[in-house]
């Protein structure tokens, strides 16, 4: 099978973790290939995500690399086993790969922690709200590109209804509640949608009020994605050039602390719902 031209985020991450195990073992690509009895080029292709890899081969590599973390090895083997195409692949011809990577990341998550100042979480946005956001992208998007993005964002909400959905913990600044993307009617509908979502047993929404003052990372949009083992966690940040994905331990620790402090300053879930409802009623 020829190498993949554009491996997904999950495929790249599996390869990156295998590379970490190899370098921790002090092995070169040549030595790793010799232990596996494959051509040397097979190792870089696996580690870049360009080549598929079986769960059995993942376990063989982990053994060759003297990795004794069975939970990590099991999680990596599970990543290799899952070769099904997600629903987001239907959009690959029309959208940037980074947007699809977010959908893939959320779909496989165990837990999502979200911290936002101005925007609503992507998986809790109404189509009307999302459309208003994408209509302000610079350079302007043609109508069909806007609708493709709206369809993907709406599709991301399916993760909340999948078997064994991730727990979702959101901290929103009050400013996000008062933004009127799409006008007053759209804003009210969005807040009502947020309230409904917050009543799900696996979704919690806390509001960080203006009165709380300063907090770390003000202005950033952060999604912390927890996987089966902490080594596979990922932070996704929004930017004008597209999503950024971070997974070094230093970066993960920084954003865990960032979200911890936001949660400490935020209102209780009940007080948060009361504030959301009050702002919606004023619109």
Instruction: Work out the helicity level.
Output: 40-55%
Average of pLDDT:
94
- Summarize the biggest pleated sheet: 6 strands, mixed
* Rg estimate, integer Å: 21 Å
Give the structure's gist in a few sentences:
The chain is 48% helix and 11% strand. The protein is α/β, with parallel strands linked by helices and 283 residues long.
Explain what you see:
There is one protein chain. With 283 residues, the protein is α/β, with parallel strands linked by helices. The chain has twelve helices and six strands. The protein has helices at residues 9-24, 29-36, 42-47, 55-64, 70-81, 97-107, 127-134, 143-155, 174-178, 184-198, 249-265, 269-282; strands at residues 111-116, 167-173, 203-208, 222-226, 234-237, 244-246. A six-stranded mixed beta sheet has the order 3-2-1-4-5-6, sandwiched between helices. Helix 4 (55-64) runs antiparallel to helix 5, helix 7 packs across helix 8 (143-155) and helix 10 runs antiparallel to helix 12. The radius of gyration is 21 Å and the shape is elongated.
């Amino acid at each position: 099978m020829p190498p993949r031209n554009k491996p997904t985020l999950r495929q790249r991450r599996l390869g990156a973790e295998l590379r970490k195990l190899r370098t921790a073992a002090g092995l070169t690509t040549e030595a790793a290939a010799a232990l596996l009895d494959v051509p040397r080029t097979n190792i870089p292709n696996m580690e870049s995500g360009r080549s598929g890899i079986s769960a059995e081969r993942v376990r063989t590599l982990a053994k060759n690399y003297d990795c004794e973390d069975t939970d990590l090895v099991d999680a990596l083997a599970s990543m290799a086993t899952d070769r099904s195409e997600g629903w987001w692949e239907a959009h690959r011809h029309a959208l940037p790969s980074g947007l699809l990577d977010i959908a893939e990341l959320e779909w496989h998550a165990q837990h999502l922690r979200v911290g936002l100042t101005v925007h609503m979480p992507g998986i809790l946005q109404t189509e009307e709200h999302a459309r208003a956001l994408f209509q302000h992208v610079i350079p302007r998007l043609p109508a069909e590109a806007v609708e493709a993005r709206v369809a993907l964002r709406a599709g991301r909400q399916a993760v909340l209804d999948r078997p064994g959905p991730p727990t979702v913990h959101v901290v929103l600044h009050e400013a996000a509640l008062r933004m009127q993307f799409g006008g007053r009617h759209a804003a009210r509908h969005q807040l009502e949608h947020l309230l409904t979502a917050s009543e799900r047993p696996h979704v919690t929404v806390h509001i960080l009020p203006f009165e709380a003052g300063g907090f770390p990372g003000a202005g950033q949009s952060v999604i912390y994605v927890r996987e089966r083992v902490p080594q596979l966690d990922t932070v996704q940040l929004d930017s004008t050039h597209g999503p950024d994905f971070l997974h070094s331990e230093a970066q993960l620790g920084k954003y865990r602390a960032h979200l911890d402090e936001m949660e400490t300053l935020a209102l209780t879930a009940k007080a948060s719902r009361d504030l959301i409802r009050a702002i919606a009623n004023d619109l």
